[in-house]
Amino acid sequence: MNELIKKAAELLESNVVQIVIGYGKGSAERTRTIFITEASGCDQLIFDSRCIQNLAVYLTKAEIKKLGKPAIVAPVPVLRSILQLASENQLTEDGLVVLGVTPESTLIEFESFAAIETYLASHKIEIDEKYQKIIEGIKSMPVEERFAYWVKELEPCFKCYACRAACPLCYCTRCTVENNQPQWIKSASHPLGNLEWHVMRAMHHAGRCTDCDACYEACPMGIPIHLLTKSMLQDVTENFGPYGPSLNKDNTLSSFKPEDKESFIK
Amino acid sequence: MQTENYTIRKASLEKLFNNLVEKGKTVYAPKAKGKVVLFENVERFDEITEDYIVTTNSAKSVVFPRVEEVFSYKKTKEKTEISDASANSFPDVVLWGSRPCDAAAFIPLTNTFNRDYTDIIYNKRFEKILILTFSCSKCDEYCFCTSVNSGTGNTAGSDILFTKLSTGDFLAEVITEKGKLLVEENSSLFEAKPAESKEQNLANVKTYFNHEEVQSKLQNLFENPVWDEKSRACLGCGSCAFVCPVCSCFDIQDESHGGNGSRLRCWDSCGFSLFTLHTSGHNPRETQGARWRQRILHKFLYMPDQSKVAGCVGCGRCSRACPADINILDTVTSL
User: Fold this and answer.
1) Which of B66, B232, B239 is opposite residue A189, by nearest beta carbon?
2) pTM of the full predicted structure?
3) Whole-angstrom Cα distance, residue A167 to residue B148?
């Protein structure tokens, strides 16, 4: 932790960056995102198992960009998001400094996005066995039962869009759901509107989602919406091969290949 | 009316619940669901949890549902039939297990729906609810009801307030005529008032600020760096407004399907970047800081100015729900 604090302070002191985005003390037992502008403020930085918010979400926010070049505290899920954002041309290498934090809580500095990709090669996305079982269970339901399962699970959704807001990959300045001419997705949080929203959200993350669970953690109603993106991740892997954020490979669903399976077209 | 006090035993409480269900009332009560406790429609007493400080969602949806049909229409070749929802009759709803802050929230909420326009649907729904509140025996760091003129044993807004006593029985304070009617209908369940006082059974919520002082400070704080500083991590979602028992902003949506359709009133939030976006593209609240300022000013300055009642009951739901841990108490105490 001390090396992270020291490095962050150095970066601010030397004006290499103007802001450090990291984790600090929050309410009660929580941690919260802090934005540090003075080297002396860096001792507020903390890192432990409570630091689950995906900080990469702030890198594309216009109001944060205005604050100058950032350094960002980046455990593995944040690194994955940074790489995915870079592959989607949302970040530039000279636009930020990545202060990687290993699962053992040691600082790891990255010279380039390529270096992040090399590091992540040994931290592949793997869906927890616990979740695999749940997803298998849902997939084995007859279609009517599965439909009823999701209608019930999504019932508490009041469309606060915390799932969207907390997701680093939902960086569109205007979401499809807010388009009302024509209105693709019903705005109201009735069963159909909720279903449409969550299906669309999952679809837009197919081949992009890095399985950070930020959507689920953000949902105030505790709806297991991450099951949708996890299941999508499995489907994409099955049909198009294993994927993870990469600078060299095309994003699965935004690129056409003649050998792509078309078994879903019936 | 003068408050009437009774004792109700734990077993009788269950009987009271069953009587309400048997009479066909729709009961909303706290129910554990995964990692949250939600006010949900319950049919059995054992579905209700006692293990909660406040529920994650507020109880406002019983009078202000997240989607409310205002009217619907049906077009045929000959004519268009319009069905006005304000002519509907609404169900008898019992809110069971609300906290004093939940009950208190109906006061500013009702003010809003009656201020410059009498909202028929809201008022018809409100007439049909019975609010059975349970005092708080525990609280947490997010609670601040005592700073906004409320408290863990406050009776305002409730029809009956139950307080659990050291014996496991409950003190029942009957506050309104609606509550009195319930006692009369179930008179065998209510016994003579207990000797034990309620105060010793209440959680002690620290008083963090003086609400009137905050109101007066806010008059000169429109331009202040605090708004940007405190909302820097804000993600711009609507979770704070949607779990808030007082927030009442809504958006009108029209849905149509062929010749049929309806107009819906849907919850909205001042945290959304589209909230005050004009057709011209101009947004008077362009930044998240300006939106956070609006939220605080509305609750702690505009609402008390308009109706003498704050727009915040100190339940702390917004802070607990915020995915970025933006804490309303933290902002208000830093002013």
Assistant:
1) B66
2) 0.95
3) 34
